[in-house]
Amino acid sequence: MATVELRFSPLPEHVRTARLVAAAMARRAGVDEAVLDEVRLAVGEACSRAVGLHQAGGITAPVLVALIEEEKQFSIEVGDEAPHATIAAPGVAGTGEEPDPEGEDEMGLAVISGLVDDVEVTADADGGLIRMSWPTLPATLLP
Description:
Elements: E1 2-8, H1 15-29, H2 36-57, E2 63-69, E3 73-80, H3 104-115, E4 118-124, E5 127-135
Antiparallel strand pairs: 1-2, 2-3, 3-5, 4-5
């Protein structure tokens, strides 16, 4: 298992770099070329969401992106340090105060869920984590 970690200041201009690194690592790990655009878009949404939460909360701590290459899958974890009163996962009603009153947070999670079949979103008072996974092709099937 190989893991690469990126930490970047919560500024929108760094999201593009995270997307590019994620796509390159996904390609290297053996993710099907047909889904690399989905990887890029999902990582962009997750990182943009984390940056927005940090900026809204005045948090200067870096956004964390972990790229994890496992035997049969490639996973990406995007973590933020923004306190979450509740998690607004698509299709699940929140039980507390929403982190984004205009619904942008929920919309971003819906977009990610539409792009990634295997996604897990967790959040608490210490921050949130979005874990996304894609299957990889066996080495014999790689070009």
